[in-house]
Amino acid sequence: MSSITKTNKNNTPIPLVKKPSLTPTPVPAVGPGGRPDAESTRTACIRTFGCQMNVHDSDRMRRMILDAGYTEVTRYEDADLVVLNTCYVRENAVDRVRGHLGELSRLKREGRVKKVALTGCIGAAEESRQLEKHYSIDLILGTHNTYELAEFIGLPGMEETHTPELPGTEGEHTAFVTIMTGCNYKCSYCVVPSVRGRMVCRPMENVVHEVRRLVGSGTRYVTLLGQTVDAWRDPEGSGNKFFDLLGRVAEEAPRVWFTTSHPSNMEDRTLRLIGERETIVGKLHLPVQSGSDRMLKAMHRGYKSDRYRRKIEVFREAVPEGTLSTDIIVGHPGETEEDHEETLRLVEDCSFDSAYVFKFSPRSGTEAAGLAKSPGAVPEGVAQRRFLEVLRAVEQNAFKRNQRKIGSTEEIYIRHAKNGNGRAVGETWSGHAVHVPTTAKPGGYVTSKIESAGPHVLYAGEPVGPPR
Ligand code: SAM
Ligand code: SF4
User: Fold this and answer.
1) Closest listed residue to residue 62, CA positions, set 82, 86, 78
2) d(Cα 134, Cα 100) in Å, to the nearest integer?
3) Does pTM top 0.85 for this prediction?
4) Which percentage of the chain shows pLDDT scores above 90?
5) Which residue minimizes the CA distance to atom 5 of ligand 2?
6) How far is CA 366 from the centre of its chain?
């Protein structure tokens, strides 16, 4: 693979030079209209579909690509290399990617795009072979071998062990740190265990060391990542669990969050720790999937709805101002009107601040996919109605809860700098998203009073005092 040559926009062959190190390099300048400057030769465009794990994987690939001397561009037609880093969780994710692959095949025929790589969860699935036949794809990588991209783009090959020492996004104000990969559950509907494999946890010292290094290089906000982070156990046999790891990281980093958690692994002491530690953001994402015990059993979630409610009571008591979000699937095969009513009741009881609501999508190889054509399958029209009912119930609750924040003064962490509307996007310590009129840079804090609220976001007034 090291002998690959590429051609630039003038069709001149460019040997891909091997570089000795993988030190991150800044994104090179782009010219007017987002086009690379004339002297830039190799260009790459990375598109990410899916969850934060995919965003994180894209970050790692971006570092390799920049290190190999590519300039990052945003449009396919400006790119020599296009990387589609994909999600496989729902069927429409694959359909979306097909649309992009069709467009890329056309751009390749026109000689505008030279190489296409399909990576991530779809790359790890059987379906990628069919896509390879239909579309012009040069490289397919799954989630466990993204490191092979290095060789493809001309960097020295990298070995990646099964417990990858994944670098976060160093030098930026926020970083994701993967603490575990894979998942040991077998939820009826989910492809994650088959595409990401069984759970592998990183050693505690390894994680703490990375967090320290990131904070030393300017990171102000660390998010611990994994499919079931609260199932984390120290693989070195120290007996440490997620509670201990979170406590350690909260001592090292100025601002910490974690996602995603599984209700069966969530310990009460971890929920209390969120309220006790000043550096941990008071928001909890705890996917429930359904309010019906019958459906939770069919989904193999391993808990009943009342156990979930009890966890939420502990969280609300420990972090009274905190925010709570969840994932809910409607229309799983076998879901009756009574089951749906149970979900609506749970939404009412837990009063979520937000929720990701999904219509069941049959994923091949999963248990539930085999039931998608059974008599218990939920017709599309019914699933759509249930979807809207759950969404509305969540939004009504969220709107009421957000209204209560009006008048409070909040310290706001700036996530994205001021946009065309003159407002930056930030986050309170309780995890609320806030729009605030400030020129403060991402990674800084301002203090402002909340003036109004919608179901998804709070609106703050002019900050009092300078940013810190
Ligand atoms: N590990 C997390 C957990 O245990 O809940 C969730 C990971 S999954 C990648 C993210 C969310 O996608 C799930 O919580 C679920 O609500 C949704 N999801 C997964 N498979 C789905 C499917 N086949 N149809 C619809 N939604 C699905
Ligand atoms: Fe999928 Fe269930 Fe594992 Fe979450 S816990 S990743 S939903 S199998």
Assistant:
1) 82
2) 13
3) no
4) 59
5) 185
6) 22
